[in-house]
Amino acid sequence: MKHLSELVRLLGKDAYLCFENYRDEDSLRALYHYLQQTDHPNDEEAATQLGLVPGGSNFRKLKHHLKLELLNAASALAPVGKSSDRDQRTFGYVWKLIAIGKQLRTSLGSEVLLTYLEEAFRLAEQFGMLDAAYQSAVMLRRQYVNRRFDRTKYQLYAERARWYKERLRSYEDAVADFNYVIFLRNSRQPAAKVQAAAYRAFEKHAHLITRYDLPIITYIVFLTELNIYLAVNDYEGVIRVAEKAVEYLDAKTGTQPTMYQVFEVNLCLAYTQLNDYERGTAFARRLLNKTKPSEHNYIKVYELLLILSLRAGKFQGAYDSYLALKPKVVNAKMQPFFRDTFRIIEAYLYLLIRLGQVEPHADDMTFRRYRISRLINSFDQVPGEKSHRNIHLLIIEIVDNIISRKHGKVTYSIEAITKYANRHLRGSEYRRVRYFLKALAQLSTQQYHREAVERHTRRYLNLMAEHPLNESRLQYYMELIPYDVLWGLILQELGYKRVRLTKGKNP
Questions:
Q1: Distance (Å, rounded) from C-alpha 455 to C-alpha 398?
Q2: Source organism's superkingdom (predicted)?
Q3: Using CA atoms, how far apart are residues 101 and 103, in angstroms rounded to an integer?
């Protein structure tokens, strides 16, 4: 069902399909309408609406018929409309012209072959499509040397085919070496090995920047250089390369937004990992001014603003930034991973309100009826997952129960989080998390007596101080509020009387 939904999004949710040639026309139309109206479709819901069995043959046949119609519509030639994805539509149009040209190239009487191929070549040149320009130039060269002999046009397209062939081969060679670097990173090879491969690839292809001065090639070379520093978590190096790449792209015309996005995302990552509030927020404000809410980087900018504000202790600023983010963007436009991260940030902001660190706006309805229990219960897949979400959800639950003086529930959650940490957080990069969790464990051991807790957790705070946040190489979303800062807020909620829990009873 997800595959069908993706094809529907590719066409646009307002596209019309004709099902008159099918016996199950009404069911096909109903299924298509369901996919148009539903952001997260599933087989069970769709089949129920149609009165079919999710795994039954009739439902499978219906999906297959719809798939065929969606593929036909997606590959059909259509006018290029004035829309935000005009470039992508143009790319698709060029490749369709080339596909038609390949089918007609053996036809002796074709009247449209040369027209379509020349249009494809013109657009491919205009939009920097190396492969498309090369393929269309080669087919035009063949036509003008033989069946439609034209000396001038043959020489033109023969020269352009040679020109694009040289650059295309350089581009593909650079992409192959870059892909190998990414393969090493994704297969978790040692950092030194990944860095060495990235350095060799960059040294091999760096001359292409000045030799050809083409954005599509330079983009790949800069990405390769970026991985020299990403491999060893050298975020100052990441910033230098990403800023250099953005400056280069700014000076060129016709560069694609996706070329910017990868460097802008890595700048967000670098500023967050370095915990650099000043430079990070300045970059975020600049980026926000040129980013539309529909673009992926719009979410990344707000994520950067929120995390930098939380880490810098500017909790009111984080709260204001969160409310400025359009709710529809949070709910509809985000991928599940980002949506979960923002929901966890929302929970921390709610706790900060309860801890007196944030003054909520008078007209704010987001947190007025907020409940941590609803957040915890909404994460259906968490029990079987080994990600940052489990840690945050348990910490959030513990802090919420401390504020509410539900010490019995705190003790239970501390036992659960200790077991989880012993099982899944063993690497040296998790040391700050482990020190914080060991400090949390002392809450129940010392019966929530503030002086006793402070005395028995001092060593863990000293260890955290020896490994400050800005030197941490852990993924930034593992520590949204610095653990030593969060610990100080927790201590303020403790009293100077011991809380003695009766077994089976929650005070």
A1: 20
A2: Bacteria
A3: 5
Among 34, 32, 37, which residue's Cα sits nearest to residue 17? Answer: 32
Predicted pLDDT of residue 299: 81
**Given the structure tokens 């593909």, which residue do they identify?**
172
How many of the other CB atoms lie within 10 Å of CB of 430?
17
Distance CA 17, CA 134 (A): 34
Per-residue model confidence (pLDDT) at position 193: 96
Helices (H), 325-449: 327-328, 336-354, 372-378, 388-403, 407-424, 431-445
Find all residues with CB under 8 Å of 114, minimum gap 6, and list them: 140, 143, 148
Bridge partners (DSSP) of residue 449 are 495
State mean pLDDT over 187-215: 95
Task: Give percent of the chain above pLDDT 70.
Answer: 91
Which residue type sits at 490? I
Q: Look at residues 65, 33, 71 and name the one whose alpha carbon lies nearest to residue 49.
A: 33
Which of the 8 DSSP states describes residue 331? I
Cα distance between residue 196 and residue 20, in whole Å: 59
Q: Which residues contact 488 (CB under 8 A, 6 or more apart)?
A: none
Joined together, the tokens standing for residue 268 give 């967000």
Q: Which residues contact 359 (CB under 8 A, 6 or more apart)?
A: 316
Torsions phi, psi of 401, nearest 5?
Answer: -75, -30
Weakest mean pLDDT among 235-239, 415-419, 486-490:
415-419
505: left (phi > 0), else alpha (psi -120 to 50), else beta?
Answer: beta
Q: What is the mean pLDDT of the chain?
A: 85
Q: Do residues 208 and 248 touch, judged by C-beta distance below 8 A? A: no
What's the token pair of residue 222?
């800069």
Q: Which two tokens stand for residue 447?
A: 């019966």
Closest C-alpha to 112, from 133, 143, 150: 143
Q: Long-range contacts made by residues 149-155, C-beta under 8 angstroms, separation at least 24?
A: none
Phi, psi of 63 (to 5 degrees): -65, -35
The pLDDT of residue 80 is above 50? no
